[in-house]
Design brief:
single chain, seven-stranded mixed beta sheet, 9 helices, 24% strand, binds adenosine-5'-triphosphate, ATP-binding, transport, ATP hydrolysis activity, nucleotide-binding
Length: 261
């Protein structure tokens, strides 16, 4: 007897989105299995944030479908909010509120939230509980937005640029947090620029370039498919640019899918 594969925790098919007539996301399909940590890697402007915002129901796709645990984030908003936690790149949080007030506010959205103290301690902000959000450092603000994404015990989490701008100790702390999520069976979609982060945390990844998936697989599968010794060199070989270079869509590039499996 064959055991059927579990339904994907995230399924996005043929997503498209343009801004002022220019395609930012051009037919992206990805699926993430329950409990998997999936990386979304790409240079600046490759379409990573637009993709995960569509998956999170924060942006409306021009075409394509999204399901999170079988739910449509745009039509089943209430139900999706109970199972999905989103940490966004830009923070829309109210600067005058303290960490404790923000945590209390977000906890109030859920029937069985994580206790406030545990949430704040998990991201290492116990000492900043009474500090206003606007007075925190960039890294501390990022950690608040992660704590808020975890407030409702989500089964699926989207993390956009988890550790950008953080010092090495803060990065390691957040990596442990993601490892803990994985141990708890949480599905994670992780947008990143950082090769070491993706290699360390992700079971599989998609590489985006100019709004398309140009490679997918485990970090090992992608490096061996490109015949390169490291993920960084695989990325260079696939895109012809390094991760700090902007993707302004004006350069010529391969649009062939280098599927690693
Ligand atoms: N609100 C917007 N209005 C107009 N253009 C946008 C908007 N958001 C994104 N874009 C453009 O769409 C393209 C993809 O942007 P997106 O933010 O999705 O890429 P990204 O891979 O997340 O980049 P980064 O790593 O810099 O965050 C870029 O060319 C960007 O300039």
């Amino acid at each position: 007897m064959t055991i059927p594969a579990p339904a994907p925790a995230i399924l996005a098919e043929n997503l498209r989105k343009s801004y002022r007539g220019r395609r930012a996301v051009d037919g992206i399909t990805l699926s993430v299995q329950p409990g998997e940590v999936m990386g979304v890697l790409g240079a600046n402007g490759a379409g990573k944030t637009t993709t995960v915002e569509m998956i999170g129901g924060l942006r409306t796709p021009e075409a394509g479908t999204v399901r999170v645990l079988g739910l449509d984030p745009r039509h089943d908003r209430g139900a999706v909010r109970q199972v999905l936690g989103v940490q966004l790149q830009q923070s829309y949080l109210h600067g005058a509120l303290t960490v404790a007030e923000l945590v209390d506010l977000y906890r109030s959205f859920y029937p069985d939230p994580v206790p406030a103290e545990e949430l704040v301690d998990r991201v290492g902000l116990g000492a900043q509980r009474r500090t206003r959000f606007e007075k925190l450092s960039g890294g501390q603000q990022q950690r608040v937005s992660i704590a808020l994404a975890l407030a409702g015990r989500p089964r699926v989490v989207i993390l956009d640029e988890l550790t950008t701008g953080l010092d090495p100790r803060a990065r390691r702390r957040l990596w442990s947090l993601v490892e803990q999520m994985r141990d708890d069976g949480v599905t994670v979609l992780l947008v990143s620029h950082a090769m070491d982060e993706v290699e360390h945390l992700c079971d599989r990844l998609v590489v985006l370039d100019a709004g398309r998936v140009i490679a997918r697989g485990t970090p090992g599968e992608i490096t061996s498919a490109t015949g390169t010794p490291s993920l960084e060199e695989a990325f260079l070989a696939l895109t012809g640019r390094d991760l700090d270079e902007d993707d302004d869509g004006s350069t010529e590039k391969s649009t062939t899918e280098a599927e690693a499996h």
